[in-house]
Amino acid sequence: MSIDLGTEFMKVAVVLPGKPMGIALTPDSRRKTPTAVGFKNNERLFGSNAINLASKNPEYVFQSIPSLLGKSIDHPMVKLFQERHPYHNLSYDATSGQLFFTRKDGVVFSVDELVAMLLEYAHNYAELYAGSIIKTCVLTVPSHFGQAERRRLIRVSELAGLNVLQIINDNSAVALNFGLLRFKSFNETPQYYMFFDIGSMSTTATLAGQLKLLV
Fold first, then answer.
1. pLDDT tens across 128-185, in order?
2. Residue 199 within a domain
3. How many domains are contained in the chain?
4. Which of 45, 67, 206, 215 lies in disulfide reach of 50, CB 3.0 to 4.6 Å?
5. What domain range includes position 23?
6. Is residue 215 predicted with pLDDT exceeding 50?
7. Angle CA(29)–CA(35)–CA(36) in degrees, nearest 5?
8. Which residues belong to the signal peptide in this entry (predicted)?
């Protein structure tokens, strides 16, 4: 399976024997799901169900949390998150290098825990869609993710019971997919393509060069 873990949404794809890669549908038959975790009466809610809860109890719903992974309290991305979600009490523990949410009822969650819950949710519905056990995955991350964020993501994936085969930049994944689907149109003349990724937190432009037939 592969997980495209975006700031606001995530998508999951699976590869089944003898079949091309396909997008795993969520339990509510959606191709993508919000990266949100909510809590209501000791029940965990994910995706759209969590977003629905946010309209009434926003302090019990944690959205866009992948953007906080592996970052300190003074990181610009964390500052932006606090501006957009002022109702959350966010703190940082320098010893563990983790950010923590403290709800108004005193319950504490680390960002690592919440992202692990999201990955576990993605793992579960991918297995439901595939009808088989899945143990390995590939993760795509923003190209600006540094080594701290990538190492933390691997650790969080292990908490979710996933074995990460590879972490790949999302812009590289787009270029690779483009090349695989259109390789028959390439010839010995190098071709150049630009890809734009307009996300909820940032926009990136990627130039892929010298795409040519090597056979």
1. 999 999 989 999 888 788 888 899 999 999 989 899 999 988 877 777 777 776 666 6
2. no
3. 1
4. 45
5. 2-170
6. no
7. 100
8. none
- Across 125-146, b (16+ Cβ under 10 Å) vs e yields bbbebbeeebeebbbbbbeebe
Does 196 map to a domain? no
Measured distance CA(169)–CA(102) in Å, rounded: 32
Backbone angles phi, psi at 9, to 5 degrees: -135, 160
| pLDDT(213) > 70 | no
Residue 101's DSSP bridge partners are 90, 109
**Would residue 208 count as lying in a domain?**
no
In a domain, 32, yes or no: yes
Structure tokens that stand for 17 in this block: 């024997």
CA 59 to chain centre: 21
**Could you report the per-residue pLDDT of 2-26, keeping only the tens digit for each?**
999 888 999 999 988 887 788 999 8
Distance CA(178)–CA(211), nearest Å, equals: 10
Q: What is the CATH number of the domain that holds 113?
A: 3.30.420.40
Gap between the Cα atoms of 37 and 54, Å rounded: 10
